[in-house]
Design goal:
With 232 residues, this protein is of the alpha/beta class. 48% of the residues lie in helices and 12% in strands. It is built from 10 helices and 6 strands. It has a 6-stranded parallel β-sheet, sandwiched between helices. Helix 8 packs across helix 9.
Length: 232
């Protein structure tokens, strides 16, 4: 991660919307950075490849906006968003992601996000949405609004905080466990410690009241985390 150099030919930095960009895919992250820096109204103070580094950048630079991808290695982006909301309320959190999953959208809103935008959002619409967030508004991609409308219509209770809602990392761990991977294998794939994997496994068992591999696989199928029966 790194900070930008001021450009004297542009608007003074103090007048621009100061941003942190976090995405574990370098090409995407740099593309978003370039898009923002091509607009005279934005200034990127730093970029990160994971949520923990993004949180540190927010602590160091106190930006106006932080753009977070969801499924990055290490610390949960939703946990980072929650911490930012509590400790740095002047920084608005916007999730910029490819995920349209209802659970992710609900987790984002519960963590205090001011925006949930899909990565295929046209450039000018993305910039306009970020300006709206900076003005204090909340902005969601049209597809996301559609998902929330369906939730309100079919199961409005899901819009309230729910202790059984899984975080993105818990869903990843559940999928790999259901597919038969060991804690060591999962730790290697997700670049986390075995102890962290075991903690996620414990939380899954507690949240979903499951006690064995068969129940875990069944729950994973019901939640559409795995799409077909997995050998037990």
């Amino acid at each position: 991660m790194f900070s930008t150099r001021p450009d004297s030919t542009r608007m003074d930095e103090s007048q621009r919307i100061r941003c942190v960009v976090a995405d574990d895919h370098a090409l995407l992250r740099q593309g978003v950075r370039r898009l923002l820096e091509d607009d005279p109204g934005f200034f990127v103070v730093g970029e990160a490849a994971n949520a923990a580094d993004a949180l540190k950048l927010v602590e160091d630079h106190r930006p106006d906006l932080v753009l977070l991808d969801i499924t990055m290695p290490g610390m949960s982006s939703f946990e980072a968003g929650r911490v930012i909301g509590e400790r740095f309320p002047q920084t608005s959190v916007v999730y910029l992601t490819m995920h349209e999953d209802e659970e992710y959208i609900l987790q984002a809103l519960r963590s205090g996000a001011r925006g949930y935008l899909l990565k295929d959002t046209p450039a000018e619409q993305l910039l306009q949405a970020l300006r709206e967030v900076h003005r204090g508004e909340r902005t969601l991609s049209p597809e996301v609004l559609g998902k929330l409308a369906d939730v309100r219509l079919n199961d409005p209770k899901r819009l309230r905080p729910n202790s059984t809602t899984l975080t993105p990392r818990e869903r990843e761990v559940m999928k790999l466990l259901a597919e038969g991977h060991t804690a060591r294998q999962i730790a290697g794939q997700l670049e986390i410690s075995i102890k962290t994997v075991e903690a996620h496994k414990f939380n899954l068992m507690r949240k979903l009241d499951i006690h064995n591999k068969a129940q875990l696989v069944t729950a994973a199928i019901q939640k559409k985390i795995v799409t077909a029966p997995v050998p037990i």
